[in-house]
Design a protein that fits this description.
The chain is α+β, with helices and mostly antiparallel strands. The chain contains 13 helices and 13 strands. The radius of gyration is 32 Å and the shape is elongated.
């Protein structure tokens, strides 16, 4: 099986998995509801007959209850009971309870609407229940205080112990979770530091499972779009290796590192939210394949072509490759740490919008005229921005992070400006924005037919060495596949009724030499190195 067919099989398998994954979740949800109803009826019957319920059924009911709780978010308010210092900025605020799985739950107390706006407390508690299943508890002796948007962890005070508990009371013996059948009371106290917090929580209308399914579908679609874009670039390079010279290694590295971070992030979510493991593990796998297979292969292909002159010197080429790998993995490791520390800083996200700047610089520095790189821009870079825009632009995002219109607007404004520059580089030349006084002198390949020097050169080169037709006629090769590229080059550099002449004084049809130079920069007649257009 060829490499291209293997890539297509991988893409098809991922598409099938991304389609059936959420559908399977919905089917399992329906089966779970039917099982819950059966257990409810059995235990309720035993209670009415004043019989002791089967211990196995009681255990199943507890698991079904705690499992049902993981689908929902509970929100409420808290207030200081004794007016003492609460370790937060105010004496009242909002609280949120989130069940990670059937064993652990998170309790958050914060000042603003969103969890990352100000200083807040967070506690990880154990879930337990009483013998008659009328009450469940979440208890913890470890309470952590974060401040400055989760960027700095502080201990409240040395020797200040805090205990937290949430009592979950059921009004009737049922595994279902509804606003009328369940009540939650929060208490957090520190006798050593003289403060106490109490509050009440109620069922939030948000369906966490449904929210996670929608998020997974969105992320899978974006990831597959990126995979298609990278696969298309690899296909172009396999057909024409010189295409690899038109991509910036630094832009590809930044894309790879961001996808690696998203992959690790979703692995972390799948391991912590075990009830949603089957949803979060799918984006993790797709993103892992994307950056470890597709993007890594593209990066290596581009680097190898841009350093192919050293392949004739095996030792030097091996040394440069080892050096490149060491620098790449060191940068990747350090940049992943920086992203994990600054991911919630809006200014950092805006700075990362300059991901296309190395690509613009690469084309201008090497004077590379190329077609507009749709696969890179719209299928690779823009989807990365959509993931960041979801968390900073959607008010009801999965992680409940505070939206920032300024951050999203600035991010996409910078992206659009870079896309415009890339487009203008294809229409007006890769160095159009650089003043002529700052540019080194360039060789002019195009010369008018009536030029005396041209007539003298054509006395020795009467035929085009590429198509073997007379220079006074048209090219004898059909260039339909590269017609858009040739038209772009002629529009930028050439004038009407002209030929192309190399520095070594050999003449060719413009269409012939343009296509030749797209493959290799050497004279077809004498093999001398040619400067770029």
């Amino acid at each position: 099986m060829s490499k291209e067919n293997r890539m297509k099989v991988i893409l098809l398998s991922i598409c099938l998995a991304s389609f059936f994954g959420p559908a399977l979740s919905i089917s399992l949800e329906s089966l779970e509801m039917a099982t819950q109803k059966t257990l409810d009826n059995r235990i309720l019957t035993a209670t009415l007959l004043q019989e002791t319920p089967n211990p196995e059924e009681v255990h199943k009911t507890y698991n079904q209850r705690s499992h049902a709780l993981t689908r929902h978010i509970f929100t409420g308010t808290w207030a200081s009971s004794n007016g003492g210092n609460t370790a937060l900025k105010s004496s009242e605020g909002k609280t949120k309870l989130l069940f990670l799985n059937t064993t652990f739950a998170y309790v958050l107390l914060y000042d603003g609407r969103y969890a990352d706006e100000d200083k807040y407390m967070i506690a990880l508690g154990n879930i337990s229940t009483d013998t008659n299943l009328t009450r469940m508890m979440v208890e913890s002796n470890t309470v952590t205080v974060y401040q400055e948007k989760m960027m700095q962890l502080t201990l409240y005070r040395t020797g200040c112990s805090m205990t937290m508990s949430v009592n979950i009371a059921y009004n009737k013996l049922s595994t279902k979770v509804s606003e009328n059948d369940i009540g939650l009371e929060l208490s957090l106290a520190s006798p050593d530091c003289n403060f106490a917090i109490s509050g009440k929580l109620s069922l939030d209308p948000t369906d966490l499972l449904r929210k996670a399914i929608n998020y997974t579908i969105m992320l899978v679609f974006v990831s597959l779009l990126k995979m298609y874009g990278i696969h298309s670039i690899l296909h172009e390079i396999s057909n024409n290796p010189s295409e690899a010279s038109k991509y910036s290694v630094y832009t590809l590295i930044l894309m790879l590192v961001w996808d690696a971070y998203f992959s690790i992030f979703h692995l972390f979510l799948s391991l912590n939210f075990t009830n949603l493991f089957h949803l979060f593990v799918l984006p993790f796998l797709i993103l892992f394949i994307l950056y470890s297979v597709f993007e890594t292969k593209l990066l290596i292909e581009v680097w190898r072509y841009q350093n192919h002159s050293f392949e004739t010197q095996p030792e030097e080429f091996r040394r440069k490759m080892i050096s490149f790998y060491m620098k790449f993995y060191l940068f990747m490791f350090l940049w992943l740490i920086i992203i994990s520390k600054l991911i919630l800083v809006n200014a950092f996200l805006v700075i990362n919008a300059f991901i296309l700047a190395p690509q613009i610089y690469h084309l201008a520095q090497n004077s590379i005229l190329t077609k507009f790189q749709t696969n890179l821009v719209f299928y690779s870079v823009v989807p990365t921005g959509l993931i960041l825009a979801y968390f900073r632009g959607c008010p009801n995002n999965l992680l409940e992070l505070s939206p920032s219109a300024w951050t999203v607007g600035s991010f996409f404004t910078i992206i659009l400006v870079q896309i415009l520059l890339l487009y203008l580089q294809t229409r007006r030349g890769p160095q159009f924005f650089i003043p002529a006084s700052f540019l080194p002198p360039k060789f002019n390949y195009f010369i008018q037919r009536k030029n005396a020097d041209l007539e003298q050169a054509m006395e020795t080169d009467n035929d085009c060495a590429i198509c073997m037709n007379s220079l006074r006629g048209d090219s004898g090769i059909d260039f339909d596949q590269t017609a858009p590229y040739m038209e772009m080059v002629l529009n930028v550099y050439a004038k009407e009724n002209c030929y192309m002449r190399t520095p070594c004084n050999h003449c060719y049809h413009p269409k012939c030499l343009i296509n030749w130079m797209a493959v290799k920069l050497e004279c077809p007649t004498c093999r001398k190195e040619l400067p770029p257009l």
